[in-house]
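Example record

The entry below shows one chain as it appears in the dataset: sequence first, then structure tokens.
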Amino acid sequence: MMLFSRVRGLPVLTLGDADRVGVVRALTVDAGSGEVTHVRVRRGRMRKDAVVAWDALGAVGPDLLIARPAGDPSGVPPHHDLVGSRVLTECGEERGTVLDAAFDPATARIEAVLTTRGELPAGRLLGLGDHALVIRTGHGHPG
């Protein structure tokens, strides 16, 4: 298990030559599938962030991430920060703010979202947009 807050700031190196790409700025999440899809890498002051697909990572450790050489960045989804997002139910009720999230680095699956109102199981995530993380109301899983 890893926390988003522990991943932020970790160095990202390329596989093989161990060239430093930059440091992790943020993780992109697909709330519908409950998975981390991409890593945003800050490359330096005057350069645009690099984007690495999670499944293009060679290894994820507690101290660094290893990226395979970058492929085509065309299929990159829009990025919304999960950490710091407001939490809203599908009915529009406020449910606090996201403080952190725990995920399995091997599968990229989010296990839990930690909010100012407690822990949310990943199964309640519906979507993440510009303004909020939207969750299912109630407890348990549909169907």
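Notes for this example: The helical segments are 4-7. The longest helix spans residues 4-7.
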